[in-house]
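notes to self, project folder thing:

trying the whole complex as one job this time. last attempt i did each chain seperately and stitching them together was a nightmare. two parts in total, labels are on each line so i dont mix them up again. if this works i'll redo the older ones the same way
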Amino acid sequence: MGAVVRLRIDLSYDGTDFSGWAAQPGRRTVEGELSTALTTVLRSADPVRVTVAGRTDAGVHARGQVTHTDVDVDLLAMTAGRSDRSAEEALGARLSGVLPADIVVRRVDSAPPGFDARFSATSRRYLYRVADDLSEHDPLRRHDTVAVRGGLDVAAMNEAAFQLLGLADFAAFCKRREGATTVRTLLAFAFTRLADGVVAGTVVADAFCHSMVRSLVGAVLPVGQGRRDPEWPAEVLRAGRRDPGVLVMPARGLSLEEVDYPADVELAARAEESRRRRGPAAGAR
Amino acid sequence: MGAVVRLRIDLSYDGTDFSGWAAQPGRRTVEGELSTALTTVLRSADPVRVTVAGRTDAGVHARGQVTHTDVDVDLLAMTAGRSDRSAEEALGARLSGVLPADIVVRRVDSAPPGFDARFSATSRRYLYRVADDLSEHDPLRRHDTVAVRGGLDVAAMNEAAFQLLGLADFAAFCKRREGATTVRTLLAFAFTRLADGVVAGTVVADAFCHSMVRSLVGAVLPVGQGRRDPEWPAEVLRAGRRDPGVLVMPARGLSLEEVDYPADVELAARAEESRRRRGPAAGAR
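result (full assembly):
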């Protein structure tokens, strides 16, 4: 392989029919589909690999996923051909032509120096959608909305969510992994009732461990239903171990909405710091 | 069958996997599923029949469909059993239990005297969703949103749509049916760009003929793309015959959002007037 250029690829996907992001033999995954599409479109002899900002679990969606990939400059130039579009635009159009309907390439750009989709990210924003008025439940949104019983008290949920903010060990809300830290900074956690009646929970953190967003929502939901006090989720957090009272919410209600990066000049330094703090086994969700 | 009571049943459905509203042998239809569910839940010896406000075509969705059905009072009472809910609430809960996930019963009420879901209706409101920025296209909304090329000029579309309002013969936008009038009153037709970037067209009329909403949107879309003048759709209307330049838009972008009825005291008079004007073969869309 000759000189390479790093590309940033932003995408959205409907996670319903995927076994999550990460490629697995014999399974349909977003990484697998994207990697195959890139390899096909670039006519690369070797599989084109992709690094992702947030490794979503099976059934989890994304509206603002970010990836990077390093491609051979000659292959990229050939893909663009004689079109008057940039090579990146041409690649995006070609990818859209071969990808299945449940993956949308939002844009392809050349990445700024030092950019790493995973380690340069400063925060990830997730959204969780819950419908509590079954008579208003929209069957067209059943793929990204979870129906629950009982009118939710959004103010009580926000009182509970607020107490979880900040730097803490989120082991109580994480599936354990050997050698991976569960210390995270929860930057935002709040619920709001949308115009269509759906209760949407926004969760922002520097990074997430496995099943963390779904466990956080599952801890606060019983507060909204009046089955737990607003103090309970913070007590679970402090106890530091998984609590059987915390339901891990279904994947289909969850979507990765946005990944934030620092200004271009800080990209490399941020990536260096993330790698050092979280290590290769963690932090990519 | 003994004494009967007329029920109003409001429902939503994802039209993707249905061959439209109307029951057809060997096809999966909304009417077929609802009729079967009612027959099952009420343990009726005869199939329970349903009358609908808007007969949606294959692939068309509904968030505010209205139906009525006449059920035996004894069967209804038995369905409610000894629960402390009303018989109508109990029936709604039982229907939800047997209906597939793509049909949602929003509520079941006893209908006011003179109510006819089809003929008492004063207007129907439809919504059509078009995504013109493919990089923002949300794959989770691909089942109810149609992607088109070219940034749409919403102001030009509204200029064109405005000229179609009022009482007219909409033959140019209708599939012909023997003996059915194509005279309708278009009460509202306007486009707006939603927060997520999608262009939504709202269409309200006293009633619609076959494929009328999809043809109206298909006439105005080329105006938004700059391929036709804002005066063109009104010229097609006046010509009074189907124009090959008018694309009948795909069904999946369309949803029946709301059906309007007059105050209870006017229900019977309105039904009588509709039956006289439109006849049994028309007007039910």
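what i see at first glance: The radius of gyration of chain B is 20 Å.
need to look closer tmrw
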